[in-house]
Amino acid sequence: MVMAISISVACVVLAAWIGFLLYRRRQQTVYEHHLENFERASNVSYAHMMDTTPAPPLNLSYLEVYRIDAQYITLTSILGSGGYADVYLGSFGGQDVAVKTMFQNHPTRRELAAFADEIQILAMLHSPFVVEFVGASWDDGAVEGLQCVMEYMDRGDLKEVLSMYEPALFPWTEKLHCIQSIAEGLAYLHAFPIIHRDLKSRNVLLDSAKGTKLTDFGGSREETTSTMTAGVGTYRWMAPEVLLSHRYTTAADVYSFGMLLTEFDTHDIPFVHLKAKDSGKPLPDVTIVGMLITNAVEISFSTAMPQWLAALGRRCVSRDPLHRPTTAEITDRLRANMQF
């Protein structure tokens, strides 16, 4: 009985500690510094102001070169929603485009500044493996209506595509082409070096003609010695060092890439197979985070996956960031094992 009570107390303490960790992480500022290459015309750092402060007039002069007149953009239907924005199918210049628009509920300074930073980052990226930026639009008197116009990818996101097939019905030859493109896109970012910080199937887009591309750079930042401590991303894809709020590098993206490989393997989110022993229900994020932090869960791949790829995946999810391959190594390994 004493042992049972001790175990129960330990579980309660662990759950409380994990809850505190998640709470603290949510309270941390995600956007510590703007990219050095994109310093604002004004020296005001909106990202550090209080979340609850109503959005003031925002200086978007540094985005003026990308500006599109809103009258030339037509929105037709909603494609999806994110943490602070909707994405619409639209048209511009006779072409289909995707238009990311902030929720119309008085966005905060931080949200506006973060969205403007995302646009600035996307505008500098030009790769066949990254969704192409078209332009930005806003009204001078209502900057909360800021929009990001991007190329449209007609197959939707990877999570959606994977959910349409049983794993056995989606051939690995096709999956490997997607995986190669994701790795190439990640290697392109890391060459800057920029950390994506939210790599998962929802942030990978597919197109019947243009292939596979990375998207959603709302959490992306240049790797520096001072900024890479705030956690961004979705817990199940996060590297242990990010969960623990330690300083991290591009190796955190490599870990997320390894978790993305589990999605290609199972066609489901990571750790969906973990169930509570008493109820049989899927484990909540807080429990899974605790298991990841304490190294109490093993990340595995099925025998249906090419074994060389499974071995690469296991290296990517190494607990020690120094034991993970670089994206350059990953792309080399993929090229060496694929026939196009």
TrEMBL record:
Record-linked Pfam families: Pkinase
UniProt cross-references to InterPro entries, sorted A to Z: Kinase-like_dom_sf (IPR011009), Prot_kinase_dom (IPR000719), Protein_kinase_ATP_BS (IPR017441), Ser-Thr/Tyr_kinase_cat_dom (IPR001245), Ser/Thr_kinase_AS (IPR008271), Ser/Thr_Kinases-Pseudokinases (IPR051681)
Keywords, sorted A to Z: ATP-binding, Kinase, Magnesium, Membrane, Metal-binding, Nucleotide-binding, Serine/threonine-protein kinase, Transferase, Transmembrane, Transmembrane helix
Chain sites annotated for binding Mg(2+): 203, 216
Claim: Magnesium is one of the keywords in the record: yes
Boundaries of every Protein kinase domain copy: 73-340
Binding site for ATP: 100, 202
Catalytic site: 198 (proton acceptor)
Transmembrane feature ranges: 6-23
GO MF terms, alphabetically ordered: ATP binding; metal ion binding; protein serine/threonine kinase activity
Family as reported in the entry's similarity comment: Belongs to the protein kinase superfamily.
Listed name of the protein: Protein kinase domain-containing protein
Species annotation: Aphanomyces astaci (Crayfish plague agent)
